[in-house]
């Protein structure tokens, strides 16, 4: 899951970036409204945390522009004031939720999960595919009743696959959502991690879930071993 933070207070922005990375989100930060709007229009984010008072262009105007441009990425507004007027403006401009500063990081995480869940159509903190279950809070992964131990990066990769089942995911898409640096075609890091996941998730099962689409990328689907 890739999150864009648009926040000019460096202290708050850095705190958010650090905390979200610890939760295995991929995070980009813009300290200026115009830069933030540009990033939001040109990247495929899963969520935007948007401050209201920003240099360049304020958060409400950015949100209006994004929605006018059919950019429908979920947005949580970060508002400094407990002002009803700001909240109404935010919701009218198309935000999905807001949180008032100062806020607890735990509360923000709950709101982020709730907004992502609505977007993904999931009704709980658990997502499933076939006999595979992922707990989005504890990061516990179970296949056919057996717990699978994954590293943080393996978990992030698997969560991205499970959130996009039966859809071919290119290496570029995977790189953008799971790694926070631009994919370098000379590295085979994605293939290496897919192999780690296959060994842990598919090995020993007749039905394989992780499949290679030659020359393109990978797809999560149910397919019997031939
Ligand atoms: Ca601000």
Task: Walk me through this protein's architecture.
The chain has about 230 residues and is of the alpha/beta class. It is about 40% helix and about 25% strand. The chain contains eight helices and twelve strands. Strands 2-1-3-4-5 form a five-stranded parallel sheet, sandwiched between helices. A four-stranded antiparallel sheet has the order 6-7-8-9, with helices on one face. Helix 2 (about 35-40) runs parallel beside helix 3 and helix 6 (about 150-165) packs across helix 8. The longest helix has 16 residues, at about 105-120. The two termini are about 35 Å apart. The model has no long low-confidence stretch (mean pLDDT about 90). It binds calcium ion.
Quick recap:
With about 230 residues, the protein is α/β, with parallel strands linked by helices. The protein is built from 8 helices and 12 strands.
Strand order of the largest sheet: 2-1-3-4-5
Radius of gyration: 19 Å
Number of helices: 8
Overall 3D geometry? elongated
- Give the low-confidence spans: none
What is the H-and-E element order? EHEHEHEHEHEEEEHEHHEE
Bound molecules: calcium ion
Number of strands: 12
Amount of helix: 40-55%
The rounded distance between the terminal residues' Cα atoms is 33 Å
Strand content: 15-25%
Protein structure class: alpha/beta
- Mean pLDDT level: 89
Task: Summarize the main sheet.
Answer: 5 strands, parallel
